[in-house]
Please model this.
Amino acid sequence: MAEEQAADTGWSIDLPDGWEGHDDGDTSVFTDPDGVGVLQITAMESDDDISEQDLKTFAGEPPKKAVKENFRNKHFRGFSIALQADGEYRHNWYLAANKLAVVVSYVCNEEDRSIEMAQVKDMVRSLELIL
Model:
């Protein structure tokens, strides 16, 4: 595992062997060159602590077919929404730690969704706040 830090945005994540990352404006993009999907992370700072309600407002109402799950690790709390539509699988996490909100998005073809999901979930669980 390699650790990827986005010091200017206040977070770090552990990447599995073979995964690479680069910044694309305000978003960090991670892929396995031999893989099937893309993981993107966007962080935003607030003047106040970010509440669960703030995250829900930001995420909007999920589609009826979406699967929603709560999330909590050492630093972040929030929820994820997974949806399959139009041949695409999308899994978004809406997370907060103090004044930092992080949106993590994984996208791949619907038929490939099980190939990288274990790695993706491990990466999201490894997300840490950098003070």
